[in-house]
Amino acid sequence: MKAVNLFLTFFKLGLTSFGGPIGAIVLMQKEIQEKRNWVTQRDFEKSFFIAKLLPGPTATQVAVRLGYLINGRGFGIISGIAFILPAFLIILLFSNYLFSYSGNPRIEHVFTGLRLGALVVIATSVIGLARPWVKKIHAWPIFLFSLPILIFSQRSEPLLILGFGLILTSRIAKKIKLYDGATLLLIFWICFKSSFLVFGTGLAIVPLLENEFVGLYHWVTHEEFLNGLVAGQITPGPVLITATYLGAKTAGFAGAVMATVGSFLPSFLIALILVPWMEKRFAETWEKRGSQFLNGAMPVILSGLFVSIIQLGAGFNWKSPQLLFSGVFAFLAQIKFPAWLTIVLTGLLFQVIQTI
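and the corresponding structure tokens:
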């Protein structure tokens, strides 16, 4: 497979992945695993739960990991950069103009439709991901135990994944036995260290960045910080691209680059160096107990996915007939069209019917 093909595939994924990390990951599953069969379902699930366990933005880490599995570290770097690039360019181009259009009803309707299409695609994909686990008796108690906990505290997800993974492994094991250089470096360091403390979703980095950019150094105002957070939510690609906006507001293009590199570099280091080393170092242990660990981890991950769908859906006005019509359209459209096109068409449709 050519590197150009890989780059374009992940660039398209980054350009159309609305709905946060879950939206991006389900699109990756459809495109990389189901459609192109570049990785197996087992490899995809393994990449997913490893990314959930380790620090760093989940979706970016999965993108890098999939590229690595396809054809080594070079392809991992390409897939990661391609996935991040669309959001980086959008934030960079519109950081000064994005919110001047925030009151435009047509623009808001398009983004509402895009998010609705993403929600439908996500929900359908999660159901498909859960289908093989429905018949596994052990998965239901773990799923039902994790669900209420994750509804109130999604930060508990890594601990639940690790805990149930080890429980299942143990059970089976018994049977088996300033715009200057200093400012730019500081921007890089703040984003780099904060990213290493992120588990599960890029939103977890928000309090850390706000404390530094707003509270400690006063580089941006609280309002500008909130604008950056919204920009990360409404633009496609990883939510952590918010850091790019903050870097641009603080130190222009150079600041945007340093913030982006600092935020996403941990994902590359973890997916391309740490995880392969761990796999090699513990290869024998994984072969014996990896599937059992996955049996404990996946129900927790599925529980977290369902919580994410509920939270995403809570932001919509479901009493609106236009919204319901667009949702039904998205559900039917994905039978015929790829996920990215379904999302785009739903966004355009919702904008059109709002004007009728």
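(Above: one complete record from the training split.) Residues 3-177+269-355 form one domain.
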